[in-house]
Design a protein that fits this description.
single chain, about 220 residues, three-stranded antiparallel β-sheet
């Protein structure tokens, strides 16, 4: 009788142990499935995994610009996806000239594919049309209506990328960098230099880089004439 009871206890213990192992395996599989789902969402750029930096309507993005209707009619508001400084996927918006839409979309995809950081991309209407405030905030943007005789931004035919990482630096005058206090450091992801693959891709697509301007190095600036 004692031998029989011992056998029963052993069998029960073995079953309980196997049952716990089974639960553990199920739990592990469940965790693995969750990770796979997250990776799948990231690979598909699922909106649920994105941090939204900007969700303007077109009307909101041009409000207060004072641009004539002929200029407004040339513009288009597009969504762009990028890796920000927090190493997460973000979605922003670029208000740009219709002529640049395909290039801008392709260039943002190129930057994303090459893990190039763009801190944020928000229409400059959010900064009350102040280029200075946008630059201080390291914001990437295209259209900003101002003196149309010299600024390609006035037609949405230029784009500034990470201006705080790539400040305007004077070549011939002893003036401070713009934005004020910004320092160039090419070891920081999101910063350009002449051999940078993103710079080369912009130039391959027919953009002029601000680094080549005569009076200053405007490294955050790319334009199409």
């Amino acid at each position: 009788m004692r031998y029989f009871l011992i056998c029963l206890i052993s069998i029960a213990g073995l079953y309980g142990c196997n049952h716990k192992k089974s639960d553990s395996v199920k739990s592990t599989l469940k965790t693995m499935e969750t990770k796979e789902e997250v990776e799948e969402k990231l690979s598909q750029n699922n909106p649920d995994t994105l941090i939204i930096d900007s969700h303007y309507t077109f009307a909101e993005s041009i409000k207060g610009s004072n641009a004539p209707q002929t200029v407004i009619d040339e513009l288009e508001l597009i969504d762009v996806i990028y890796i920000s400084t927090d190493e997460k996927l973000h979605q922003g918006q670029i208000l740009t000239n219709k002529r640049l839409v395909d290039d801008i979309q392709a260039l943002f995809q190129f930057m994303l594919d090459n893990n190039f950081v763009v801190e944020k991309a928000i229409p400059i209407a959010a900064y009350n049309w102040s280029d200075s405030l946008s630059m201080v905030n390291n914001n990437t943007y295209s259209f900003c209506y101002r003196n149309i005789s010299y600024s390609m931004h006035a037609k949405g035919l230029a784009i500034d990328i990470n201006p705080r990482f790539n400040p305007l630096r004077w070549k011939t005058q002893n003036l401070p960098n713009e934005p004020l206090g910004a320092v160039m450091d090419t070891t920081v992801n999101g910063t350009f230099h002449p051999e940078h693959i993103v710079v080369k891709e912009f130039r391959r697509r027919g953009f002029r880089w601000g680094h080549t301007f005569s009076k200053y190095w405007d490294d955050h600036h790319f334009e199409r004439r």
